[in-house]
Amino acid sequence: MIPAQLSYVRARSVEETLDLLAEHGDDAKVLAGGHSLLPLMKFRFAAPEVLVDIGPLGELSYVEESGDEIAIGALTRYRDLHTNEILRAHAPLLAEVAGAIGDPQVRNRGTIGGSLAHADPAADLPAATLASDAVFVVRSLEGERAIPAEEFFLGPFTTPIEPDELVVEIRVPKQTGLGWAFEKFSRRAIDWAIVGVTAVGSSIALINMGGSPVRARVAEEALASGASPAEAGALAAEDTSPANEPHASTEYRKHLARVLTTRALTKIAGEQPVGLR
Amino acid sequence: MRVGIEVNGKQTDEEIEDRTLLVHYLRDVLGLTATNVGCDTTSCGACTVLLDGEAVKSCTVLAAQADGHAVTTLEGLADPDGSELHPMQRAFREQHGLQCGFCTPGMIMASVSLLRDNPKPSRDEVRHGLEGNLCRCTGYHNIVNAVMDASGQEVQA
Amino acid sequence: MSVVGTRVVRMEDHKLITSGGDYVDDLREPLLTGAAHVMFVRSPLAHAKIAAIDPAAARELPGVLGVFIAEDLPEASRGDSPTSEPWLAGDTVRYVGEPVALVVTEQRYQLADAAELIDIDYDPLPAVIGYETALTSETQLFEGTEHNIAGVNGEPGAQTGAFDDCEVVVTETIENQRVAPAPLEVRGASCAWGPDGRLTMWLSTQNAQMARGALAMRLGVDEELIRVIAPDVGGGFGAKIGADPEATVLAWAAREVGRPVRWIETRSENLTSMTHGRGQRQTVTIGGSKDGRVSAYRLEVVQDTGAYPRMAASMLPSLTGLMATGVYKIPAVEYASRSVFTNTTPIAAYRGAGRPEATAAVERAMDLFALRIGMDPADVRRINFIKPSEFPYTTPSGATYDTGEYAEALDRVLAAADYPALRAEQARRRAEGDVVALGIGVSSYVEITGGDSSGESGKVVMHADGSVTAYTGSSPHGQGLASTLAMMLADQFGVPMEKITVRHGDTDEIPKAVGTFGSRSLQLGGSAIKQAADKVIEQAREIAADLLEANPDDLELDVTSGQWQVRGAPSAAGATWSQVVERAEDTELAADLWFSEGNPTFPFGAQVAVVDVDTETGKVVLRRIIALDDAGPIMNPLTFAGQRHGGLAQGSAQAMLEVMDYDEDGNPTTATLADYSFITATELPDFELLDMATPTDRNPLGVKGIGEAATIGSTPAVHSAVVDALTHLGVRHLDMPTTPIRVWNAINAAKEVH
């Protein structure tokens, strides 16, 4: 399994990256950690003519406090998210989720920006950013724009990023002291989630319950009106349309969303949820 | 394109196709064949090497991405003269942590990386730390024993 | 002091942990200098006519040395029977992954570029997928078959009235699902035709000599002109027996392009193109009395053969039939099987090959019977075991078991598991309404090893420097047999292991051999080496007698010092091996023989599995597995345990996780390692092993095979544990693998009934 022929270009700065993207347009793909893109290229599901490697841009790898927000550089690796003290203190959900992606080798390479731009409906970080009301800063030669997570995940592998744009930063409102929970249901530890729940405070976002991560709005509203974890959890699958597959039917996924949301909310309420850990 | 990669302490400098995967650079260009290819989906971990000291799957890294960096493969783990085994190598042999040996180079490199992050792991932490490395022969029991042994901890019969 | 029986680290390991093994894709042999690369282009459709195939564009790509399709190949490539498997598909493709063309290029990276350019038009045909479709579809894979039948054993549907007098009769249909052997090293080969007209092929195989025979026959070349070498092999598990058709095409292509060639498949190819294992739909019927005595058992099998007849048309289901009654003394047994063609990857051997299927069926039947009569499953087993005094025991299906201690094995694992405490814990959780249910599975098993009874070669050479070289016809590929044989020889000769070299897998060095499968290697290959060593010792005795001027009968070999001495005169000067061998005619002593008197042996055991099942999500976690696997005397406890560990993992994997699946159009849905649930370290507990060693009298070592035993025992133990966790919810059966959705569906279905 070998990628199709390509031209590799290493970007030396964000500015140069933007120049290259503007120059090559649709023919170019940005290479960050490469753990979403290279597997596709090896199967030739993707065959960019130009690969713009932004991996070495240290300027895009950071986690910083910025007023009421945490600013995360797009090239921050899962490994670094997982162990980052600032994130652990102010956005622990993201830190926890990053530590559950793939396996250690994948976490040593994969980046938050790469995962978000790839927009796989089965991925964990997109839902976690959605639950966290994150905003994605996207830059091109034209300038910068900020896209809320709510408007970012348009469908499977589809985002509003234009070919000449680059995700440079993820901004997350501080969740200091808020309860949070992450329930990932998969067959093996290394598998993608069949269904997952990311929850922080009273926000709930679901993994793999449709073509993109989705907020469990009905459950959130019930929670706001004083519903118990079980009552709110029972509403978690409302307005979702998860895929129907042999190993996970639509009905089963909805059931899992309800069970896992109940467990997540139970944990946030400070109680020990039932079920296998 | 031309890449310069330090491999097992020696600088290498080669002309390659841009699309060359690191694992093929090691195997086919440099002839370092300990690192194996076991899948095409970044699943099996047989191709695990250390890149700047961290475990990566070399089938999912372009050689170009390793340009200017340092790679360690199984061949570079023991003393250069081969007289002294790395504690992880010794432990894999002592604990029968290998059978056919195909997953072994990647498994040993992942285990070395695991102990670098967590010098005294529990058995459960070892299992999770090696979740990205598949083995078909050993049932993992003795691989866990090997990592426990290498970290100076008790093994299980 | 004896080395055999002690814990000895393997001599194979040093290379494997320092420079890595020399697997087929690693070879840099001089004969392979300038080798071109080969890739097979495979069918993306399960069943179709090839309407047109145009390799022209691919042939024009720089670096392409050849593109070949079926019509380029010799007549022999099409086979001689209507169901023959062609080297490359000609007018029809019959499974996704079937080779259709091959490309030969200068560089490895040009392969996929060239393959993409081959233009193939397919006219799809209806796909035959699943047992029922195969039997009832109007579509036949091959002209001239009915119901897609590939082979029949016994009389399907025949009834003898055996169940007429039974108080209780239980029946169930069980699927023993198709799984992928998935050795970590995929298939590969390299070959070159030398100036002398000889073919040398390095092949990732379990049987170099068998491969040579297959290549000779298919290519129409004398066996003498072919040398096959099995280099280090990265696992086989039955799926690397002999040589697959790709190896033949490779040899042909090397001659055609006039270059050495090398081929290594991708994992995605491997998962659809290397043979799969298992694949049986089993209908079990078990009858007996309410006091637990089983008097009749019927097993009707539909064996999925896949698209071409490899081993599943007859051999695998006959082994299932042979072992149908397992460890139980059941007076009346009915067995029949039908093998059916489907548009899927051919099925062949996978760790156990027909025997795990038999054990899974009878163990499931025992559990169902126990559940129906309300008796503990362990008690039902005890009542029906063949007793130690009844051996040798000939089963109704014609197997003659050598030795067995079935009740003791079960009692010991139950004690080690603290079975009563587990049952109490289960009752407590059920009473408390715990969402996490505890399941306890029990299995008892017997299997057959060395079942082919065709013997094995062994040659032992004692050199003048006192070192020893052994040539075994067995072909280890991870089992550690070389170390075990060296241990045996060290004991026999009184020579340190470091001075012993074990060679295998090269047809020039070892022209006649069978190789490794069916857990045969130690009992047949090991016995051959033992007998050869005995012969060397007898030759040496004569020479030593001459040297020491004594009667041969008065001499003894002191295995502590490795010296020949006159019995009763230990202080007198002895003769060293070097002295003895130097006196020999060729300055070496050698014996080369074929061990043919080895009859099949019957390893057995018992296992207990403990699982937690989340009854809300359906998630299963294997908490414990306690195994006793008795294969006679243990040569090296380290590698003996290793074989069991691997078997436990693969057997548990079939019960919980792994399935090679197809959609109704015949598209494989588990064709990568991202989709196929290959078991990992996180899905397994530490294994708890108990030892027992009941010898056999069927070979001079007294040993039975251990390669497959633990696989056979663990699948039903873990499967049974999952079902057991759910019986209080009304579940009596669910098929493997016990995936979360299946568990959840089973719970829901039981709720609807109750």
Task: Write up what this structure looks like.
- The complex is a heterotrimer of chains A (277), B (157) and C (754).
- Chain A has 277 residues and is α+β, with helices and mostly antiparallel strands.
- Helices cover 31% and strands 22% of the residues of chain A.
- The model of chain A has no long low-confidence stretch (mean pLDDT 96).
- With 157 residues, chain B is α+β, with helices and mostly antiparallel strands.
- Chain B is 30% helix and 15% strand.
- Chain B has five helices and five strands.
- Chain B has helices at 22-29, 87-94, 104-117, 123-129, 141-150; strands spanning 2-7, 10-15, 48-51, 54-57, 70-72.
- In chain B, β3 and β4 (54-57) form a beta hairpin.
- Chain B starts with a strand and ends in a 7-residue tail after the last helix.
- In chain C, 29% of the residues lie in helices and 24% in strands.
- In chain C, strands 3-5-1-12-9-10-11 form a seven-stranded mixed sheet, with helices on both faces. In chain C, strands 7-15-14-13-8 form a five-stranded mixed sheet. Chain C has a four-stranded mixed sheet with strand order 18-26-27-28, sandwiched between helices.
- The longest helix of chain C is centred in the C-terminal third of the chain and has 28 residues, at 521-548.
- The mean pLDDT of chain C is 96.
- Chains in contact: A-B, A-C, B-C.
- The interface between B and C is large, with 60 and 57 residues.
As laid out across the biggest beta sheet of chain C, the strand order is 3-5-1-12-9-10-11
Strand segment tally of chain A: 12
The biggest beta sheet of chain C reads: 7 strands, mixed
User: If interface size is counted as residues with C-beta under 8 Å from the partner's C-beta, which chains form the largest one?
Assistant: B-C, 60 and 57 residues
Shape, per Cα inertia axes of chain A? globular
Using the CA coordinates, give the radius of gyration of chain A.
19 Å
- Assembly type: heterotrimer
Tell me the helix content of chain C. 25-40%
Q: In terms of structural class, how would the helical and strand content of chain C be classed?
A: alpha+beta
**What are the segments of chain C in which pLDDT stays under 50 over at least 5 consecutive residues?**
none
Write down the overall geometry of chain C. globular
The total of beta strands of chain C comes to 28
Helix segment count of chain A? 11
Run of helices and strands of chain A = EHEHEEEHHHHHHEEEEEEEHHH
For the residues shown, what is the average pLDDT of chain C? 96
Task: List the total number of helices of chain C.
Answer: 18
Instruction: Give the percentage of residues in beta strands of chain A.
Output: 15-25%
| Major sheet description of chain A | 5 strands, antiparallel
